[in-house]
Here is the input.
Amino acid sequence: MVYLVDEFLLKNLWWVILLTVICLAGIVILLSYIVYKKKKEPTRVVNISDNLQAIGGKDNVLSHSLSGSRIVLRLKDYSKLEREKLKKAGAVGFILKSDKLTIVFKDDAKAVYQDLFRE
Here is the structure.
């Protein structure tokens, strides 16, 4: 059995080399594409004072908490809330239930929360 495999490889050595080169080239192209696509994603620069203004300032916040990808707020005056500014900061949704406002973020809620409510 081993002899048959060795004989096959010797007879078809150029095909084996060619197939190996093609596979390696495919892997290199795939990895290059993944790295290029990752670099191409835009970076958001968000001003913290804009986020504070978007929720009406720190004086407008009665209580706040972080829950996964969501920031839960109780505000004094919900009319001061500027949703468009928060969307620019990465918010993808807003849920207003009774007296609590939940702001849903795609992936960076913790960073926004820490920047907003630093002691």
